[in-house]
RNA sequence: GGAGACGUGGCCGAGUGGUCGAAGGCGCUCCCCUGCUAAGGGAGUAGGCCCCUAAAGGGUCUCGAGGGUUCGAAUCCCUUCGUCUCCGCCA
């Protein structure tokens, strides 16, 4: 897909027909307590598949306490309301004695109601906070397992090229000078890179290429979102409260997004969307920032794991019945990019123990890196079901009528640009130290076909 | 940074102490009319939570959020968050 005259780029606005809307509301639970109440064993069984201890007994006890308090508070309120109405009537009749009596009664009730309300609120908040810490439940078809060793390969594409001369991306002669980690460290520390010349351009070309495929061929709406977001957006996409340490926070209290999944998904927050406006499909190319707090010592050389990187993200907001099919569609969109770039890959479905906090099911795509002689993650495509939607109160109005229901949200990388650059460089390296540019990318590189060993485009 | 305005239901938008969960419009659903590519008429249409439940029903809360005044608040006061406008500054 060369840049140039655009074929049908049917654009639907990202937000219409629902306008911007403030969602500053209290934290909402991620799990449906009523579902837990109805089937606590099922809830615990699902959690245990993730290796987590059962919690339903604790939750139900909290829920019971909460409901008792609510009932007490509400019936007291109902009494007071009834009396308050009679106060008005007494006043109307001119019955001063009765008026005074009732007025006093209402005033006395007031303190009791306030106390009961307080207690009910506290119970409710406690339950909500507890629920917020519990991860999503795995989908039934997700394989059981403890860690990445138990992930199941479901697809493999391409054959790694024989190359006994293969080195890692930053060691390739054509790349060496253009990927400068020392200079980056001088200004920013470790896990940063300063790219220049053809490599910087190739990196940019990759992002453009991916974005063009997704918008022109896959029907996603291009979005250029903020990369600084508020607490609510991080909560809504389950990055908070548990994973604040992994992200950067400004002195003003804004968060640097760890992925544009955050702003893209949060578009739907607080809205009731018309059913026929689903699915919503977004894509964005953005910077991402991660503190990599827990990964000291891992992938320290090269640009595989950086504090700042670029990613083309895909996000879909769907009807609950459509989300499984949508996830497969997104997976294909991501795999297709690698196929066009002629990079061998394999796709795995993550086992229960390896999935992220908010995921119901996750597919990882791992690209072949000749320099490491290993498949490494380059994309992750997850469905969260209604997990995030509950959290950010994103619903749709069923076409056939009835109450609004939660939408499903999905996200996937399509792809990580920096890691994709690594894959292109390592797979394209030649025994003379040059790098071949994949045909699909050449139009984005001024028609050039390679980076020579001395680092020039040719 | 200085000054001001505003924040209402799926959407838009009235409403400045009581009869308002809330006019009107749009949208949507159902019905009627119409024989033609559209229009007209009628009715209905907020959400959360709790109880009950087969269904129905009942209670409570919600007009950004929290608190206060009052017999009574969307309407008054305070705090807070957010949005917008003007000025300043600036890419």
Lay out the secondary structure.
Blueprint (H helix, E strand, L loop, with lengths): L32 H6 L1 H10 L6 H38 L2 H37 L19 E6 L15 H4 L2 E2 H8 L5 E2 L1 H21 L3 E2 L5 E2 L1 H6 L11 E2 L5 E2 L4 H6 L5 E3 L5 E10 L18 E11 L4 H18 L4 E5 L11 E9 L4 E10 L3 H6 L2 E3 L7 E2 L1 E9 H12 L6 E2 L2 H4 L7 E2 L7
Helix pairs in contact: 3-4, 7-12
The structure holds one RNA strand of 91 nucleotides.
Q: What is this structure, in a nutshell?
A:
With 458 residues, the chain is α+β, with helices and mostly antiparallel strands. It has helices spanning 33-38, 40-49, 56-93, 96-132, 173-176, 181-188, 197-217, 231-236, 261-266, 323-340, 387-392, 417-428, 439-442, and strands at residues 152-157, 179-180, 194-195, 221-222, 228-229, 248-249, 255-256, 272-274, 280-289, 308-318, 345-349, 361-369, 374-383, 395-397, 405-406, 408-416, 435-436, 450-451. The longest helix has 38 residues, at 56-93.
């Amino acid at each position: 897909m060369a840049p140039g005259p655009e074929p049908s780029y049917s654009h639907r606005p990202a937000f219409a027909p629902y306008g911007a809307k403030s969602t500053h509301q209290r934290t909402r639970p991620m799990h449906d307590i009523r579902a837990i109440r109805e089937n606590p064993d099922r809830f615990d069984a699902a959690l245990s598949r993730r290796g987590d201890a059962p919690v339903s007994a604790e939750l139900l006890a909290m829920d019971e306490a909460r409901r008792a308090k609510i009932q007490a508070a509400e019936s007291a309120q109902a009494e007071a309301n009834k009396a308050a109405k009679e106060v008005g009537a007494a006043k109307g009749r001119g019955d001063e004695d009765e008026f005074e009596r009732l007025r006093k009664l209402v005033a006395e009730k007031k303190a009791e109601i306030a106390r009961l309300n307080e207690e009910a609120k506290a119970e409710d908040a406690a339950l909500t906070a507890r629920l917020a810490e519990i991860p999503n439940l795995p989908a039934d078809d997700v394989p059981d397992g403890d860690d990445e060793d138990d992930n199941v390969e479901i697809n493999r594409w391409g054959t790694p090229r024989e190359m006994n001369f293969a080195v890692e991306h930053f060691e390739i002669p054509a790349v060496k000078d253009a990927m400068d980690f020392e200079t980056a460290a001088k200004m920013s520390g470790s896990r940063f890179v300063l790219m220049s010349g053809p490599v910087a351009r190739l990196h940019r070309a990759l992002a453009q290429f991916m974005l063009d495929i997704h918008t022109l061929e896959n029907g996603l709406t291009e979005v250029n979102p903020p990369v600084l977001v508020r607490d609510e957006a991080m909560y809504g996409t389950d990055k908070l409260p548990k994973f604040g340490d992994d992200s950067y926070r400004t002195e003003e209290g804004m968060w640097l997004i760890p992925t544009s999944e955050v702003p893209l998904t949060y578009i739907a927050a607080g809205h009731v969307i018309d059913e026929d406006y689903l699915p919503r499909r977004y894509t964005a190319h953005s910077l991402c920032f991660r503190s990599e707090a827990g990964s000291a010592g891992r992938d320290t050389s090269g640009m595989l794991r950086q504090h700042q990187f670029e990613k083309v993200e895909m996000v879909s907001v769907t009807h609950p019945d459509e989300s499984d099919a949508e996830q497969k569609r997104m997976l294909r969109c991501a795999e297709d990019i690698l196929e066009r770039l002629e990079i061998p890959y394999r796709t795995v479905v993550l086992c229960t123990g390896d999935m992220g906090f908010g995921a119901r099911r996750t597919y990882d795509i791992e690209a072949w890196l000749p320099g490491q002689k290993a498949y490494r993650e380059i994309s992750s495509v997850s469905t969260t079901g209604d997990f995030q939607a509950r959290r950010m109160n994103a619903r749709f109005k069923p076409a056939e009528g009835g109450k609004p229901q939660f939408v499903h949200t999905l996200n996937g990388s399509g792809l990580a640009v920096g890691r994709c650059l690594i894959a292109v460089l390592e797979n394209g390296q030649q025994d003379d130290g040059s790098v071949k540019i994949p045909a699909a990318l050449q139009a984005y590189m001024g028609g050039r076909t390679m980076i020579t060993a001395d680092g020039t485009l040719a």
